[in-house]
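4.2 Preliminary Data

To establish feasibility before requesting continued support, the project team ran the inverse folding procedure on a target of 186 residues. The structure was first converted into the token representation described in Section 3, and no sequence information of any kind was made available to the design step. The complete token record follows.
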């Protein structure tokens, strides 16, 4: 018997499951298109890369943006992923009243050691579809930083692959140049 119509959880259902203790704070799950998806454990190289990015971005951007590490973003009623790093527009409530929405997001970064295929085939089209202006995929195994800009439907019109020896600046903050080799840990 084939499953005809799988149940799709909404972001409100997902958050209620968390408040009720069905999903714990330490559970490595995200809501993607109505499905609760288990994420792989975070290794030390992944964690260190996120730590490095957070430190550099906080130092470089100060009060010009909110740097959000591995916290939820509400992309739609069916999707609430937790990207490794989100650069957000400043808001007086510091996002206490609600999770960031697509219009609040300037850049999303996913760091991947084992999840490159998922981040590229599932998250990238999702981010493009909701209009996230810029998405970086830090492929630690491949030694490449993929920069995706100019969302168009399920893809990005501008894609660059950068390696150690180059620099990158977020589109929203062209004055903040980051060393790609340091991001990749090279």
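Position-by-position output of the design step:
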């Amino acid at each position: 018997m084939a499953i005809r119509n799988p149940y799709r959880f909404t972001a409100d259902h997902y958050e209620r499951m968390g408040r009720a203790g069905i999903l714990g704070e330490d559970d490595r799950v995200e809501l993607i298109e109505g499905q609760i998806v288990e994420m792989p454990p975070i290794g030390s190289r992944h964690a260190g890369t996120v730590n490095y990015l957070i430190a550099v971005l906080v130092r470089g951007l100060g009060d010009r943006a909110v740097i959000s590490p591995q916290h939820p973003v509400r992309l739609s009623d069916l999707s609430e992923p937790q990207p490794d790093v989100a650069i957000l527009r400043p808001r007086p409530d510091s996002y206490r009243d609600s999770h960031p929405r697509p219009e609040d997001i300037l850049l999303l970064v996913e760091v991947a050691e084992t999840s490159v295929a998922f981040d590229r085939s599932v998250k990238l089209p999702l981010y493009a579809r909701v209009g996230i202006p810029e998405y970086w995929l830090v492929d630690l195994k491949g030694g490449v930083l993929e920069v995706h800009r100019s969302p168009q439907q399920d893809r990005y019109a501008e894609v660059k692959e950068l390696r150690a020896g180059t620099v990158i600046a977020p589109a929203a903050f062209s004055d903040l140049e980051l060393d790609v080799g340091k991001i990749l840990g090279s």
